[in-house]
């Protein structure tokens, strides 16, 4: 195990790469959180206060069941999008780490 | 027959424990399997840790008896993982060793924060465990005819054994095996159910509608008050990301990238499982019938086993019963190890001993802690015989949502947040959840002062408000430096001790 390094945290935090990373990360976190919270709570609200989706779609399968089912696919798709996004951010993080070792900040 | 399957499961898990015990010598081995678990293994283990017998037997029963509302109930269990994936998992992995408090300790004074975090962790795990054990006693009695007391003692002793001797490595593999068995059982059951309806969901839904009326497929049978359902949804969404036995799993992988991968694996498995509860539930209501389900157990817990018997005879019933048994074991083992970690790592090593405890002392305390947590839970579960404790699961989620999540979010994103805020937030969340449940219909029934079964709708905002007030009313003690350090570490993983 290498000895514990001390880093110039403030310097890293001020670097343009890090600021760019956080801007992208926060933007994704905020937009996706707003989206999935609204999408999810639409289910108990629509189910509890309206009968808008009770119409049948396929035989006895109605809209509200399909909307509930769609939540699973929403979660999977959003997770997939996040992973693609995060993999891109990983490259920025690698860049920050590379810059660090170049500057010998340890 | 069921006994044979049960014995095989016990034998295999004990062999794993023996194998794991030879590989468990340091504290990192004990708490987090030496951070050696790969992303996909951890994903399966998270699923195994999370999908409790209450999900497997309970949700199938709720759907069989209440139709659509039962399925709506299952949705939140998956969507909650988006909070885990997008907000919590990676920063936590980047900043912690074994527990949630490790992250907080970067910015705050160690002792009070660790003490309160340990309190909240142990409370959540104990509530959750009592609910699991009491449910397990009832289920094993139905499945095997064993006494309630004997069932609980068998499960309790096994869970202590896995954790004390095999640590996190044994716990992980018990969870993986359980998840594989549970998925296999659920897939086979679903396939058999669908085969009765020419593999047409429309056909199945039409028959449900014919027999129980179209209203059975519409909302309103279970949740008379929509706010109950909204409050429960909030507890799941905000609580899953604060459950200690789920959080500790993120420390068992080597990197944040693997942590991310493990959540995705867990989401695939958990989502597939909850979608299939439709087939189990509606299948049972048609192929077994509500009368027969209610006759076996009023709350519907026997739907899935009875469905297995109807479709595959006694052997399949025995197999599904064994799956339920493995399910219980995996979940309670995960709970014991997370509670023991909080006790030994946060409370003993860092609060009592100021971080000066040696490796071997810590392991010893962690093992004693596991035995202690296990025995206390067994005793409490024995005392709760014939009590309806299902609300304890809701309470555990509510505490996790109200005490842990606000503090996790503020320490990652709010510069001014300080020790007072963290302690105030956790205590407000913890106490308000417990008090609101005590004055709710769960405990006070008709004379309830607070109308909702799940307190989250009020207790989560209270947890946030507690954290905000605690911070703003105290002196600004934040050191810019420590916040910056946590902020950079959490988001990049720089400085992680490998």
UniProtKB/TrEMBL annotation, chain A:
<keyword id="KW-0472">Membrane</keyword>
<feature type="transmembrane region" description="Helical">
    <location>
        <begin position="61"/>
        <end position="83"/>
    </location>
</feature>
<protein>
    <submittedName>
        <fullName>Uncharacterized membrane protein (DUF485 family)</fullName>
    </submittedName>
</protein>
<dbReference type="InterPro" id="IPR007436">
    <property type="entry name" value="DUF485"/>
</dbReference>
<feature type="transmembrane region" description="Helical">
    <location>
        <begin position="30"/>
        <end position="49"/>
    </location>
</feature>
<keyword id="KW-1133">Transmembrane helix</keyword>
<dbReference type="Pfam" id="PF04341">
    <property type="entry name" value="DUF485"/>
</dbReference>
<keyword id="KW-0812">Transmembrane</keyword>
TrEMBL record, chain B:
<feature type="transmembrane region" description="Helical">
    <location>
        <begin position="456"/>
        <end position="473"/>
    </location>
</feature>
<feature type="transmembrane region" description="Helical">
    <location>
        <begin position="230"/>
        <end position="251"/>
    </location>
</feature>
<feature type="transmembrane region" description="Helical">
    <location>
        <begin position="6"/>
        <end position="21"/>
    </location>
</feature>
<feature type="transmembrane region" description="Helical">
    <location>
        <begin position="315"/>
        <end position="344"/>
    </location>
</feature>
<dbReference type="InterPro" id="IPR018212">
    <property type="entry name" value="Na/solute_symporter_CS"/>
</dbReference>
<dbReference type="InterPro" id="IPR001734">
    <property type="entry name" value="Na/solute_symporter"/>
</dbReference>
<keyword id="KW-0472">Membrane</keyword>
<dbReference type="GO" id="GO:0006811">
    <property type="term" value="P:monoatomic ion transport"/>
</dbReference>
<feature type="transmembrane region" description="Helical">
    <location>
        <begin position="263"/>
        <end position="288"/>
    </location>
</feature>
<dbReference type="InterPro" id="IPR050277">
    <property type="entry name" value="Sodium:Solute_Symporter"/>
</dbReference>
<comment type="similarity">
    <text>Belongs to the sodium:solute symporter (SSF) (TC 2.A.21) family.</text>
</comment>
<keyword id="KW-0406">Ion transport</keyword>
<dbReference type="GO" id="GO:0015123">
    <property type="term" value="F:acetate transmembrane transporter activity"/>
</dbReference>
<dbReference type="Pfam" id="PF00474">
    <property type="entry name" value="SSF"/>
</dbReference>
<keyword id="KW-0813">Transport</keyword>
<keyword id="KW-0812">Transmembrane</keyword>
<keyword id="KW-0915">Sodium</keyword>
<keyword id="KW-1133">Transmembrane helix</keyword>
<protein>
    <submittedName>
        <fullName>Cation/acetate symporter</fullName>
    </submittedName>
</protein>
<dbReference type="GO" id="GO:0015293">
    <property type="term" value="F:symporter activity"/>
</dbReference>
<feature type="transmembrane region" description="Helical">
    <location>
        <begin position="71"/>
        <end position="92"/>
    </location>
</feature>
<feature type="transmembrane region" description="Helical">
    <location>
        <begin position="113"/>
        <end position="144"/>
    </location>
</feature>
């Amino acid at each position: 195990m290498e000895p514990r390094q001390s880093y110039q945290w403030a310097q890293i935090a001020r670097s343009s790469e890090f600021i760019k990373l956080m801007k992208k990360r926060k933007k994704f976190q905020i937009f996706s959180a707003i989206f999935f919270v609204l999408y999810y709570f639409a289910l108990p609200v629509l189910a509890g206060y309206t009968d808008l989706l009770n119409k049948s779609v396929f035989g006895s399968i109605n809209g509200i069941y399909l909307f509930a089912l769609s939540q699973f696919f929403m979660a999977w798709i959003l997770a997939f999008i996040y992973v693609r996004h995060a993999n891109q951010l990983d490259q920025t993080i690698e860049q920050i780490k590379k810059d660090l070792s170049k500057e010998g900040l340890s | 027959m069921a006994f044979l399957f049960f014995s095989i499961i016990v034998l295999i898990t004990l062999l794993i424990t023996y194998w794991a015990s030879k590989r468990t010598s340091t504290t990192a081995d004990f708490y987090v399997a030496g951070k050696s678990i790969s992303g996909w293994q951890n994903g399966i283990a998270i699923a195994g840790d999370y999908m409790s017998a209450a999900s497997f037997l309970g949700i199938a029963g709720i759907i069989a008896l209440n139709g659509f509302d039962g399925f709506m109930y299952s949705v939140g269990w998956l969507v909650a993982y988006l909070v885990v994936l997008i907000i919590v998992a990676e920063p936590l992995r980047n900043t912690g060793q074994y527990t949630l408090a490790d992250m907080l300790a970067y910015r705050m004074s160690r002792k009070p924060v660790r003490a309160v975090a340990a309190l909240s962790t142990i409370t959540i795990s104990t509530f959750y465990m009592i609910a699991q054990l009491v449910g397990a006693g009832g289920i094993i009695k139905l499945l095997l005819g064993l006494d309630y007391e004997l069932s609980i003692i068998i499960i309790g002793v096994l869970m202590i054994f896995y954790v004390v001797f095999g640590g996190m490595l044994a716990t992980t593999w018990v969870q993986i095996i359980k998840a594989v068995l549970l998925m296999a059982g659920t897939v086979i059951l679903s396939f058999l159910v669908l085969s009765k309806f020419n593999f047409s969901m429309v056909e199945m839904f039409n028959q449900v509608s014919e027999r129980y009326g179209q209203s059975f497929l519409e909302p309103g049978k279970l949740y008379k008050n929509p706010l109950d359902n909204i409050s429960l949804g909030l507890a799941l969404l905000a609580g899953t990301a604060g459950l200690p036995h789920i959080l500790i799993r993120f420390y068992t992988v080597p990197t944040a990238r693997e942590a991310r991968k493990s959540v995705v694996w867990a989401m695939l498995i958990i989502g597939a499982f909850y979608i299939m509860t439709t087939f189990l539930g509606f299948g049972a209501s048609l192929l077994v019938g509500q009368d027969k389900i209610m006759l076996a157990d009023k709350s519907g817990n026997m739907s899935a086993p009875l469905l297995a018997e109807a479709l595959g005879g006694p052997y399949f019933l025995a197999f599904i019963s064994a799956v339920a048994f493995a399910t219980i074991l995996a979940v309670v083992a995960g709970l014991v190890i997370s509670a023991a970690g909080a006790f030994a790592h946060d409370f003993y090593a860092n609060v009592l001993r100021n971080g000066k405890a040696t490796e071997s002392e810590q392991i010893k305390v962690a093992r004693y802690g596991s035995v202690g947590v296990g025995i206390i839970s067994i005793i409490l579960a024995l005392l709760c015989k014939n009590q309806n404790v299902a609300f304890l699961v809701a309470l555990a989620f509510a505490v996790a949502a109200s005490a842990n999540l606000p503090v996790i979010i503020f320490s990652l994103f709010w510069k001014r947040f300080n020790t007072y805020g963290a302690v105030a937030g956790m205590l407000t969340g913890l106490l308000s959840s417990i008090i609101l449940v005590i004055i709710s219909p769960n405990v006070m029934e008709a004379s309830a002062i607070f109308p909702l079964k799940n307190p989250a709708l009020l207790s989560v905002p209270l947890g946030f408000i507690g954290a905000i007030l605690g911070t703003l009313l105290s002196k600004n003690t934040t050191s810019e430096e420590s916040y910056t350090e946590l902020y950079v570490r959490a988001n990049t993983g720089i400085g992680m001790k490998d």
